[in-house]
Amino acid sequence: MELEKEIRWVGSSYDDLLAFPEEPRRRAGFQLAKVQAGLDPDNWKAFDIVGAGTREIRVNEPEGAFRVMYVAKFVEAVYVLHCFDKKSQATSRRDREIAEARYRAVANVRNV
Q1: Which of 19, 91, 17, 5 is nearest to 55 (CA)?
Q2: 3-8 contact pairs (CB < 8 A, 24+)
Q3: Which run of H or of E encompasses 44?
Q4: Nearest alpha-carbon partner for 82 in 8, 3, 16
Q5: What is the DSSP secondary-structure string of 62-75?
Q6: What is the DSSP-derived secondary structure letter of residue 77?
């Protein structure tokens, strides 16, 4: 049996996830547990524009559209880069830039 990967929260991603309404937060947590176990989330999208291997968990609820960007390609952990609620169909430039900066930070730390 494969051991679950550790989750490493980057920047404010953990606090941002905790700010989700209860049901989207619970669903996002369940999907992250699947990723930890080496499985794909139920609803996801590749987001390589942020960085190679980045994926976005998509949680759609009556309260809105919630997203969790993460990278699971590294052996030591799943890095959660950014958690946010979407205000429009496209991911905002600000949310993309936050995820990109955090991806670079993870890559820099791993290369030390």
Answers
A1: 91
A2: 4/33, 4/36, 4/37, 5/35, 5/36, 5/38, 5/72, 5/75, 5/76, 5/77, 5/78, 6/36, 6/76, 6/77, 6/78, 7/32, 7/36, 7/77, 7/78, 7/80, 8/77, 8/78, 8/79, 8/80
A3: strand 44-46
A4: 16
A5: TTEEEEEEEE--SS
A6: E
* Number of other residues whose CB lies within 10 A of the CB of residue 16: 18
pLDDT tens digits for range 33-73: 999 999 999 999 999 999 999 999 999 999 899 999 999 99
Using DSSP's 3-state secondary structure scheme, residue 85 falls into strand
Domains parsed from the chain with CATH numbers: 6-110 (3.30.2310.20)
Token digits of residue 1: 């049996």
Please report, as a single letter, which amino acid is at residue 78.
Answer: V
Instruction: Indicate the range of 63-72, 84-93, 96-105 predicted with least confidence.
Output: 84-93
Do 74 and 110 form a contact (C-beta atoms < 8 A)? yes
Amino acid letter at 21? P
Q: What is the pTM of this model?
A: 0.93
